[in-house]
Amino acid sequence: MEALSDCTGGIVEALNVNVYGNGTQAMVLAHGYGTDQTLWQYLIPYFACYFKVVVFDLVFSPNVNPSLYDLKRYSNFNGYVQDLLCLLDQLNLNKTIYLGHSMSAMIGCMAATKRPELFEHLILLNGSPRYLNDKGYNGGFRRAEVDTLFREMDKNFPSWVHSFAPVAVGVNCTAAIAQFRCSLGRMKPKTALSVARTVFLSDLRWVLPQVQVPCTIIQSRKDVIVPQPVAFYMKRKLRGHVGLEILKTEGHFPQLTAFPLLLKVVERVLSIGG
Length: 274
Description:
The chain is of the alpha/beta class and 274 residues long. Helix content is 40%, strand content 15%.
């Protein structure tokens, strides 16, 4: 299969798109690094009562044909953004509710600057425009720390996965740790390292002022991957209507470890339910 270098009709099949529910408005759920669409397993049944719920796998997922992951194309976020725009076009979707977790939060922001008509509301879950600290900016990591992370991944990927998963999940939730450890561990080590470099070395702060679509930032109270100050930074820099919700939970994956709490917040933000 050819790489996803243009907006081919096969992207829906290539990225394993699944659609649940038959609402008139689409809700797109986009996962982050080291996971796949099963990350949304607890939210889909509820959202499907109100929306046409669209889930898919990002190109680095082990569920996707590995030949589609092109090192150059995905060396920055632009390849992922183009994939998302193509996918929405192929499904003839616009005015979507977009819920992007982790790196997919910024994928959604970038896509919305290019094609704002495709998005009615962006929900940015534990996302970050920059993971490295900078002058006047607390991204959560020093460069030496991410360099050590890269070395550990390269030296012994299975060992790194085993130790990193519980740290990222952030709470003692056996099922969530096992799920993240499994999905992350199924990635090809070279692909995992390539994506990690793209994510942890990115600086997308310049994107935020260009986003005109209404946004809601949802952030765990404590997250070792994305510290709380990042959420307040994003709120200051995003333009237009921006909401911020701090979840009274810990960890990078509230959709797995605190999904009833997350559902209540999204329900309130979108004025659904009863």
